[in-house]
Write a structure and sequence with these properties.
The protein has one domain. The protein is flat, with a radius of gyration of 24 Å. The protein has 90 residues and is mainly beta. The mean pLDDT is 85. The N and C termini lie far apart (61 Å). 14% of the residues lie in helices and 57% in strands. Strand 1 and strand 2 (47-66) form a beta hairpin. Strands 1, 2, 3 and 4 form a 4-stranded antiparallel β-sheet that branches.
Length: 90
């Protein structure tokens, strides 16, 4: 098993990758995230429900103006909303 791990690691480290780095090509990518949480919180004197939503989007856009030289932008958008209310609603 140990020799298999060493062989696999060596193969991954020796692999070459190639990309389009020439003038006139576009780069497109980015990340996105969505998170939602619902919960009920109780203490000795009060109980309430909570809802939380978070959305984040961050695209990457670039253009090669010359060989191996690019310009680009990385705009980002984030939105969050949180509500708390007593059990059963208002």
């Amino acid at each position: 098993m140990k020799s298999f791990f060493i062989f696999t690691t060596f193969c991954f480290l020796s692999i070459s990758s190639f990309g389009q780095l020439t003038k006139g090509n576009w780069l497109v990518g980015g990340t996105g995230n969505f998170y939602s949480r619902n919960g009920t919180y109780t203490t000795q004197s009060i109980s309430y429900n909570s809802k939380y939503i978070d959305l984040t989007v961050s695209p990457d856009i670039g253009y090669f103006i010359g060989d191996k030289i690019s310009i680009g932008i990385k705009p980002s958008f984030s939105w969050a909303n949180s509500k708390s209310f007593p059990p059963g609603g208002w």
